[in-house]
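agent: user wants the structure for TRAP transporter large permease protein from Cohaesibacter celericrescens. delegating to structure tool.
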Amino acid sequence: MIPFITIGLLGLLSLSIPVGIVLFLLGFGVDQFFSLFPLLRGLGNMVWSTSNSATLIAIPFFVLLGEILVRSGIAERTYAALDKWVSWLPGGLIHANVATATMFSATSGSSVATAATVATVAMPQADRLGYDPRLFSGAIAAGGTLGIMIPPSINLIVYGFLTQTSIPQLFLAGLLPGILLALAFMLVTVCICVIWPSLGGERRRFPLREMIGGLGDLLPIFLLFSAIIGAIYKGWATPTEAASVGVGGALLIAAMFGGVSLGMISEAIVGTVKITSMIMLVIIGASFLNFTLSAAGLSSEMRNLLENLGFGPLMTIFVVVLIYIVLGFFIETLSLMVVTIPIVVPIVTGLGYDPVWFGILMIVLIEMALITPPVGLNLYVVQGARKSGNMSEVMVGAAPYAFTMLCMVGVLIAYPDLALILPRLLQ
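agent: tool returned. relaying tokens verbatim.
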């Protein structure tokens, strides 16, 4: 059955069929050929029960929050302010790419949206200031992946929903690894540009007065992030309630900078509907596929496969990591999560691993999938914003950052407290 699912998934995706539809078609195929009982009669109830969740309402709110900040011009202000603070480092403006992606990761919850935002703002600067297009664009693609690690993260909400894991704890667990990963990206950039200075472009220093003045553009974003995450951790609001308050805060910030207009609000709402519809279609399709796979016995088949390998818990985790790396080359990231979580997470937790820790480990692997060809979405987003050059340049530029993520996987396995220390301290 596993070869049938793999070949079917890759074959249908190669036809450019939308991912959500692919998952439904695979579910129908499994139901017809492998299940002992007809399951289609329960399809309507399954669609309703999957989508009828207060937790999932947080997704459109967080998407709308990011859309408002992007379309109101806050992105340009944030980028210019961070440019003043980090462009003195070897690598210059490349650090502003990573820093801006980190800031917007703390509000948008989406890697693709974060990468698209930073790419749109930053790309015009690359040629003008003489930066190597490979490293410059690769840093944007890698920085954008932080959108699903640093809270609030849509992917962590989906993980918590599917595994019944505390979303506030997941948010808190992702904060420290996300920040460390951003710093690691900047460290890698410094090392590369020290060895090959021509790749880094111009290093610029700004007067202290300009640097301090730029903080006025960063402070509202920081306060918005603190209000959202603080309300969740203090128990004052659920993630859904905090997201709705965040939308109001985003509108207030946009109004402060004169970015609110009827056209902007209309574009933000349309963008939110498109993104949310795509996410929900994938979640519902994956839930149906997972239901048919369980009925056909794939869950027990996968469990028996891993158990029959005779490996201990640590080696089993390495096998799971290898599976995610390979699948990440070919399968869209959200689909990869929702298809594998119901199968893999029970096996991992059965070995004694913390589901919160594994959620963060999985997110790092999903981040790698976003910048590894041939299906790395962030690579295509950045290439689309470039409007020139070859796709291979973005792939080469992202390679050092993908290796950095692989190192972070090893660090999380060796030191699981890196993800668990904040949830334990604030529990």
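agent: one observation worth passing along. The chain has one domain: 52-425.
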